[in-house]
């Protein structure tokens, strides 16, 4: 089955947050004191997640990415992963992690055929890592990266570009692609830190990031972007990996967006910038049968906003986005 929204964009990709909790306190994601975490009963259970993914698979979802918070903070995450890969129709299961707790599970992830792992890593400098994340966990994260590469699990490094924080890391991060088959993706900073905007304007736009890289690597050249790619992709002659730049705040990729999000509290977001369009958790905990829930999901998909700017204007609180990315689902 093929699933399309009201703008004739296919929907085949689910980003599912399994928890809002995280063991880091990254500057761009949440306040230093953290956020008010949801009680466990407010999170979707593994059984509810399995039921939801199974329903969505029959509707046309074939790709699932588990996010958080930090997914491995949730107990028995591998149990959920093992169950999702067995769902008929789910072709690819992906994972986004900060890498602090991940290394132990890499052999099993390899065995079950995880499609890829996105590793959040904004710096390769130990002291800057501590300053950005407000935690001293650099070594476990680098261990995870090395093990992912050794096990030949496709890995992308996600680095948020922050003015005055990690500009000096852009080149060292690119150098990871010299001898490793890794995709390093630089992301525009977004106002999802639980406090709202902490800057008056975005200095490091995707255009400035690309220009900066080109200044240091004149041979940088554009390569084809995969279907529904959120990044502009590049390579450097002789380098094994590739480079991507994501216009997350500029929102240039909305026209080909094929993804939906479900937050840890079971709220459907058909756009990263909306404030939730359907309370799936309540539906799952009601007496409704699957077909009735699927009809409500279809209604939401058929009333999807055109882009992130329209979604932001339609927010019920009429305020700019201010949630923590840990609450939204990375």
From TrEMBL:
Enzyme Commission (EC) number: 4.1.99.22
Signal peptide: none
GO molecular function, one term: cyclic pyranopterin monophosphate synthase activity
InterPro entries: Aldolase_TIM, Elp3/MiaA/NifB-like_rSAM, MoaA, MoaA-like, MoaA_NifB_PqqE_Fe-S-bd_CS, MoaA_twitch, MoCo_biosynth_MoaA/MoaC, rSAM
Record CDD domains: Radical_SAM, Twitch_MoaA
GO biological process, one term: Mo-molybdopterin cofactor biosynthetic process
Domain of life of the source: Bacteria
Cofactor(s) listed in the protein's UniProt record: [4Fe-4S] cluster
Catalytic reaction list: GTP + AH2 + S-adenosyl-L-methionine = (8S)-3',8-cyclo-7,8-dihydroguanosine 5'-triphosphate + 5'-deoxyadenosine + L-methionine + A + H(+)
Top-level class of the enzyme under EC nomenclature: lyase
GTP-binding listed as a keyword: yes
Family matches, as PANTHER family: MOLYBDENUM COFACTOR BIOSYNTHESIS PROTEIN 1, MOLYBDOPTERIN COFACTOR SYNTHESIS PROTEIN A
Identification of the protein by name: GTP 3',8-cyclase
Originating species: Ohtaekwangia koreensis
């Amino acid at each position: 089955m093929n699933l399309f929204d009201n703008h004739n964009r296919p929907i085949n990709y689910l980003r599912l947050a399994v928890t809002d909790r995280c063991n880091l306190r990254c500057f761009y994601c949440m306040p230093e004191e953290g956020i008010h975490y949801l009680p466990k009963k407010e999170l979707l259970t593994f059984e509810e997640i399995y039921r939801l993914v199974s329903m969505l698979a029959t509707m046309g979802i074939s790709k699932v990415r588990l996010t958080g918070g930090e997914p491995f903070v949730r107990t028995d995450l591998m149990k959920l992963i093992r169950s999702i890969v067995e769902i008929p129709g789910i072709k690819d299961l992906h994972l986004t992690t900060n890498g602090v707790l991940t290394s132990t599970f890499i052999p099993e992830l390899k065995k079950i055929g995880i499609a890829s792992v996105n590793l959040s890593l904004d710096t390769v400098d130990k002291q800057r890592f501590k300053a950005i994340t407000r935690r001293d966990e650099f070594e476990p994260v680098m261990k995870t990266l090395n093990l992912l590469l050794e096990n030949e699990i496709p890995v992308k490094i996600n680095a948020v570009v922050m003015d005055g924080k990690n500009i000096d890391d852009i080149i060292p991060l690119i150098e990871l692609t010299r001898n490793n088959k890794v995709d390093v993706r630089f992301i525009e900073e977004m106002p999802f830190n639980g406090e709202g905007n902490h800057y008056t304007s975005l200095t490091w736009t995707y255009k400035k990031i690309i220009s900066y890289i080109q200044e240091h690597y004149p041979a940088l050249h554009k390569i084809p972007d995969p279907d529904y790619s959120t990044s502009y992709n590049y390579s450097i002659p002789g380098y094994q990996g590739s480079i991507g730049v994501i216009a997350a705040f500029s929102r240039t990729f909305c026209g080909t967006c094929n993804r939906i999000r479900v937050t840890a509290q079971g709220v459907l977001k058909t756009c990263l910038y909306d404030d939730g369009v359907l309370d799936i958790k309540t539906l799952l905990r009601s007496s409704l049968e699957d077909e009735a829930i699927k009809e409500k999901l279809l209604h939401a998909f058929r009333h999807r906003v055109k882009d992130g700017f329209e979604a932001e204007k339609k927010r019920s609180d009429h305020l700019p986005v201010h949630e923590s990315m840990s609450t939204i689902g990375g």
